[in-house]
Amino acid sequence: xxxxILVLEDGRAFEGVxxxxxxxxxxxxxxNTSMSGYQEILTDPSYAGQIVTxxxxxIGNYGVNDEDVESRRPWVEGxxxxxxxxxxxxxxxTESLQDYLKRHNIVGIExxxxxxxxxxxxxxxxMRAGISTVxxxxxxxxxxxxASPQMTNRELASAVTIEExxxxxxxxxxxxxxxxxxxxxxxxxxxxxxxxxxxxxPIPNKLIASQKNSTTKEGKLNAYQSExxxxxxxxxxxxxxxx
Length: 243
What we know:
The chain is an alpha/beta fold.
C-alpha cells in the first residue's frame, strides 16, 4: 500500500493510504452519509467535478456489478473512505471496488479520519480539494488545489449529457411531458411498472450556452440541477404514455 494525501483549499491536510488508481485528482470536496449504495453514488452524474467522502466506515464489502449504476460511467473526481474492504462477498458482484476504481482511473484515499473531515466540511463549507499518490508534499499539492477550477459557474451539463438520443419501449402512446435529472434507476422503476415509453435526448448546445450566464450564486445550473448538486445529470424526457 502506498501513501496518499488529501489537501483542502484552506490548508487542512489528511494523510492516508492509496486505493483505486494512482495519480492526482481535484474537485469540490463533499460527503455522503449512505451506509450502502456506493456504486450508485460513484455513477451519479450530479457528483461530476466532486470528490466524495463516505461517512460509513467500511466501503466496498459487496463489490460492484454491471446493474447497479446510475449512468454510463463513474463521474466523481475522487473517492475518500475510512476503510476500503479488500474482501468482496455478494453473489451479484463481478468486480472489487478497488479494481473498479482502477479501471475508471479514479483516485481514492483510505485510512483517514473521515469523521474529522466531515465535521470540518460541515463547519467550513464545501471547498476545493486534491488527492495525490504521486506528490505527497502538502504545500505543493495545496498550490495545485488553489489553481484548480472552482465549482461556482462551472458548466458541467455538456460533460455528463448523453451523446446520442435513444429510447426504451415501444407501444401505443400519447404525449405527457418531460423530466430532467433522470437517472437509470428511475428509468428501471418506470419500465418495471410498464407505464412510460422513455426517450433520451442530449442537452442541446444552445440550452447549455444559455445557462452559462443564468446560474445562481451557488453556481448551479437551474434548468438541469437538483437542489443539492452542483452539476447536471443527463436530460431525459418521459415523452409518451403507454395506454
